[in-house]
Structures are given as C-alpha cells and as structure tokens.
Recover the amino acids of this structure.
C-alpha cells in the first residue's frame, strides 16, 4: 500500500498496461519528452521509448484517427486529448467513427482504444479549458465513458479500459490530479460498469462523479454532523456501462435521490439516472429526486464566479437539507 | 523519390511492357466490372430497388483498378462514400455490393451500413467513410501499426478533390510525413467537389498535388483515366512506403460521368465537357491498350460477356434476397454483440 497522487496514478496505470502488453501504445501532444502538460505522463517516454510513447503535432483529428486506425488493425492505443474541451475539434471520431464502425460493418471492425483527457473545472481556465463533457460522450451509442475519482480507481479503471474491446472515453479530472489516495501494491484491474458505494447511509442517496465525489463526501459529513442527515454516497465511476442496480438498490434503502453533476444542467447524466429511478423505483421515493448541477452557462474564469457555478460542498449541504426538511 | 514522378510521366510509358498480360487482363476485367455494376446500381435506382443515396464512380474506374491491381494481399484500402469501385476492385463479390446497396440480407454488411460504408475486412477494405476527410488520419493509424509491428503492408487512402480543403487532410498529410508512415493518399480529382467546380473553391490549380510541397512530398499528378499509369505510379509509391520511405500523395485526374449522388443531375457542367471526357473513357483506352499488346478480340469480348453475366446473376440474387432480419437491429453496438449500456 502506498499513497499516490491521482496524477502519479495515471502514470502507473499506463505503465502497468504498457508493461503487460506490447501492443499498448500511447500518443498525444506533449505526452512524451515533456511528460504531459499536467505532468501525468512523466517518465513513460524514458521507460517505454519513442516507438511506444509518441509526441504528436497539435492535430486532434490526426491523433484520434491514428488511434482508431491502429486499433482497427491490432494495436491497443491510448491517446491523450489534452483538454476535453478539444473534443469539439475532433468530435467526428467520437461521434461518428469510433462508436459506429463495429455496427455499420456488421461486426467486422473493432475499435479497442482509450481516449484519456483532462476534464472538468476548478482551475480558473475559463470557458474553453474547464468543461465537463461527460454528457457529450455518454449519449453516443457504441462508446463507453469512465470518470474515476480516486488514484486507485484511476489505475484500475484505466486498466479495465485498455483491456476492454470497445472504445472508451477516460475522463481524468484536472482538479483531482494533485489529490492523494491509498493505492495497493501490484497490478490493479477494475471492472467497467460498476458504481461504488463510497459512504453508506440510510437517509438519502447522493450520486456523484469525479470531482463531485469528494465534494459529496464532504457534504455528507457535514449533513451528518450538523443536521443529523445520514447520506449514502455513490460514486458512479462509469457512465457507460451504467451500474443502475447499485443506484436503484441504494434508493430502495434511503428513499431519496440527489445527483451532483459538474456538467451544465441540460441533458446532464443525472437526468438519465433520475429518469431511470422515476421509471423503475418511483414508489421507493419519499420525495422528488433533486439534481444539483452547474447552471446552464459557459464557465467563467474568475475564481469567485467559477466557485459559484460548480456544485460546492455548501450548495450540496444546503440543497439536501432543504429538500429533506420540507 | 523523384522516381515516382519520372515513371508516371515517362513518355509512352504505357508502351513499356513492364506490366505484363495477367495484370492487364485483371485491370480490364475490373474496370468493366465496376462499369457494369455501377451502371446496374444506377438502373436499380430508377426501379426504386436501390434505396437511400449512392455515389457512383462511372468514368473513374481506372483509378480503382490500377491502385488495387498494384496492391498485395494484406494491403489495406480506406475508401469514401464513393467506394463501390474500390470495394469491388479488392475482389468483393458483386452480389455483396449490390445487396448492400439494395439493403438486403445478402449485402456486405447485411444492410447495416449501406452504400456509403462498404467494408470487407477480409479483403482489406477497412471501411468507406462518409465524413469527408475522416479516413485519412485513420489510414495513418493503420500505417502506424504496420510501422510499429514491422508489417510490410501499406495503407491506401482514396478520396475526392473536395477532401483537400478540409482540415483532416492537412493534419493527416503532416502527421504521415513527420512519422514517415507507409500510407498512400490517392486523390481522385474529378473536377467537382459535389456540385461546385473544385477550381472555384481552391487556392491552387491542383488541389492535392500543389499542396504536397507543404508536407515535403513530391508533386505527383497523373492521368487517372489510364490504368497503366495509375498502376505504375501506385506501385512505385507502395514500394517506397514498404521500404520505409514514407507516404505519397498522388493526384489522379479523372471525371465522373454521373452527378455527385443520386439526387444530382449534374446540370452545372458546361456543355460538351462530359462528351470530351468520354472520348478518353478509361475502358475505351484500356480496350485499345489490350489490342496494342496483341490480346485477341475473343478474350476481350469474353471478359465483357462474363462480367455482364455475373452482374445479371448478382442482380437476380439480390432481388430474391430478403430484407435483413429484425434481430440484427441491436447487434454489434458493443463488442459483446449487443447494445446494453446498463445493468
């Protein structure tokens, strides 16, 4: 067991898979010699060499296409798109190419690749380097979408993503890179499509993802200590496949549902979860499900404004308390 | 690698018998097969037996035949929505192609892809891509795999003149050149990006070749209606790529006889242009070529008769084939064979 940062967990996860399988290759902008703009790939170039860890030009379409062509013909590429906002300049691959090739070809074409990207806000980067784009990805049939919240999950879910035969969008949260967590020694391999109950509780279920998980946990502590409300916190981890059973099971025990989403409100992943719960567990609920989200706005740069926009611990506490006490 | 250009542009290159009879007969058969199958596809439209859209390569047969004939088994083709010709050229059965156009269960992808997405991995046809430019980077990736694994196959990527004005074209060219990838970019310049003359919307006269220098590549423009010239040029580019010499960009001058797609009567073309190009019809050119090399009329007519018979047979099989069964609707979204996104 060792304490590792989320950033170092990315390095360890990639290294674990590249060591295991020589067909795993890695490409992206500044990922090799420079070690990544978030320092999340430091040392990989030195460890695995220039044939397996390749710096690319600033050409997101070329990165995505190259990853796909390599995947179709037998490699297991990991590609990095530096900021998830840049998905917009190569969205054709995310929306039209990776996810549809298997279906359109009647199963002939395979696309086992992982796209890693820095997602989410909190770094004061403004509207084009801070977005949470998980909802852009999860609506596309054929993709899998994963977003870890802890160093241990980074390694385990990255390994699962690399070993998965489908294209996986792997969303690393920029504001989590410096956070630390306990990580067991040796190989770690998790399973996609599994949510974790990271805090048991009996009064309400809070479902969260990525940076919102530590915030939901902190809010749950406050709600317990200051208001006597005992919340269960579910870390979704994998939006596609989605572990609805863990969520439905939790709601069946607590009878209340809250989602905490960093994405802007419209069509956020929480809407899908609320819809599923309303459809399949309506009579388990003791009150209306509540979505706590970023408002439907572009993210501002100023720290004061960005902090107002993203769901905060205090906002979660206030919203849960208000709902539970009404 | 000036050799690629020199060979293509050598005077009377077609009279050098460096190609030989067997590849020539193969290229002739292939051009006739593409012509007959595409003409049949057009006729089937008029009978409402081909649904959706379709983009024909009538008049462009020599590019597909020449490029494919120069390939080795295991080489990979990446095509556009105008991909019937390149798919047939790799040996995919006519019935499979027409069946897909007619959206029957006997189609190449059982109707799940349609005319614009013909794919036959077993034949090296790694897909037909309907988003302009998307497949150039993808071909780079396949070539990267070959380079990384030490495989000797090349990836050949076909696209139209209109593709040269989209970003992915430029990203892929630079990427392939910097990484020295074994990929060959083949631009079929048929003079029109969809409905607009390519010259009206492009800063240089030769939309592909005039960009080559930007990526450190030689400028190659060839007569795309002469399968021999295409064969030689492609063969030299493949050899260069296999030897580690990196990518090539080949601009083939050609002309499509029909409109951009089924919806386009091509009324934007100046009067007489089509007729002028038909004088240099690739099949007419090649028929004469075979005669020059002493191939008898009986053999030539025999090929034509055989192809027509096979297109007729394929058509009848497709007409008799059922639509795809409902149970494939949700198959193969994910690798587990299904479409489940939740438990």
């Amino acid at each position: 067991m060792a304490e590792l940062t989320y950033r170092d967990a990315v390095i360890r996860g990639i290294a674990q898979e590249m060591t295991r399988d020589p067909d795993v290759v890695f490409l992206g902008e500044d990922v090799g010699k420079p070690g990544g703009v978030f320092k999340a790939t430091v040392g990989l170039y030195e460890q695995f060499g220039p044939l397996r860890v390749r710096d690319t030009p600033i050409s997101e379409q070329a990165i995505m296409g190259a990853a796909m062509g390599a995947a179709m013909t037998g490699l297991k590429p990991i590609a990095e798109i530096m900021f998830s906002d840049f998905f917009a300049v190569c969205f054709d691959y995310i929306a039209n190419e990776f996810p549809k090739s298997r279906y359109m070809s009647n199963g002939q074409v395979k696309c086992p690749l992982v796209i890693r990207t820095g997602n989410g806000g909190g770094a004061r980067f403004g509207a084009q380097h801070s977005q949470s784009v998980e909802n852009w990805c999860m609506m596309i049939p054929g993709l899998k979408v994963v977003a870890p919240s802890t160093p241990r999950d980074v390694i385990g879910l990255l390994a699962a993503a690399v070993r998965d035969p489908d294209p996986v969008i792997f969303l690393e949260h920029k504001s989590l890179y410096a956070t630390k967590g306990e990580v067991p020694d040796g190989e770690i391999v998790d399973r996609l499509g599994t949510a974790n109950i990271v805090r048991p509780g009996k009064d309400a279920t809070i479902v969260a993802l990525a940076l919102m998980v530590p915030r939901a946990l902190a809010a749950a502590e406050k709600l317990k200590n200051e208001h006597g409300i005992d919340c269960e916190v579910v870390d979704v981890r994998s939006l596609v496949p989605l572990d609805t059973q863990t969520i439905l099971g939790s709601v069946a025990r607590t009878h209340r549902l809250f989602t905490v989403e960093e994405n802007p409100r419209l069509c956020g992943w929480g809407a899908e979860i609320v819809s599923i719960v309303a459809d399949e567990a309506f009579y388990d609920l003791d009150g209306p499900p509540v979505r706590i989200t970023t408002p439907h706005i572009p993210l501002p740069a100023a720290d004061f404004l960005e902090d107002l926009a993203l769901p905060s611990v205090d906002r979660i506490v206030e919203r849960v308390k208000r709902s539970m006490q009404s | 690698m000036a050799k690629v250009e020199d060979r293509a542009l050598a005077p009377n290159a077609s009279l050098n018998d460096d190609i030989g009879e067997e590849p020539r007969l193969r290229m002739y058969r292939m051009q006739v097969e593409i012509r007959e199958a595409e003409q049949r596809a057009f006729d089937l439209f008029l009978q409402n037996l081909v649904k959706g859209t379709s983009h024909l390569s009538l008049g462009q047969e020599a590019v597909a035949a020449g490029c494919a004939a120069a390939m080795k088994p295991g080489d990979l083709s990446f095509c556009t929505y105008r991909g019937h010709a390149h798919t047939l050229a790799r040996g995919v059965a006519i019935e499979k192609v027409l069946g897909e156009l007619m959206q029957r269960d006997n189609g190449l992808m059982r109707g799940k892809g349609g005319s614009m997405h013909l794919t036959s991995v077993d034949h090296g046809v790694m897909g037909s891509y309907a988003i302009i430019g998307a497949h150039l980077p993808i071909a780079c990736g396949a070539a990267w795999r070959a380079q990384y694994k030490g495989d000797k196959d090349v990836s050949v990527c076909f696209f139209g003149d209109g593709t040269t004005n989209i970003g992915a074209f430029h990203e892929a060219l630079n990427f392939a050149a910097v990484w020295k990838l074994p990929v060959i970019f083949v631009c079929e310049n048929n003079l029109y990006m969809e409905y607009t003359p390519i010259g009206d919307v492009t800063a240089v006269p030769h939309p592909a070749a005039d960009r080559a220098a930007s990526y450190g590549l030689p400028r190659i423009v060839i007569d795309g209606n002469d399968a021999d010239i295409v064969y030689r040029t492609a063969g030299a580019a493949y050899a260069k790529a296999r030897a580690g010499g990196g990518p090539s960009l080949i601009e083939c001058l050609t002309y499509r006889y029909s409109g951009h797609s089924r919806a386009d009567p091509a009324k934007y073309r100046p009067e007489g242009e089509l007729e002028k190009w038909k004088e240099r019809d690739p099949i007419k050119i090649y028929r004469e070529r075979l005669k020059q090399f002493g191939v008898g009329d009986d053999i030539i007519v025999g090929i034509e008769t055989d192809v027509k018979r096979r297109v007729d047979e394929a058509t009848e099989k497709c007409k008799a084939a059922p639509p795809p069964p409902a149970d494939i609707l949700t198959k193969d979204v994910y690798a587990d064979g299904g479409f489940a996104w939740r438990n």
About this structure: The radius of gyration of chain B is 20 Å. Residues 1-14 of chain B have pLDDT under 50 and may be disordered. The domain at 2-7+18-328 of chain B is CATH 3.40.50.970 (Rossmann fold). Chain B has one domain: 2-7+18-328.
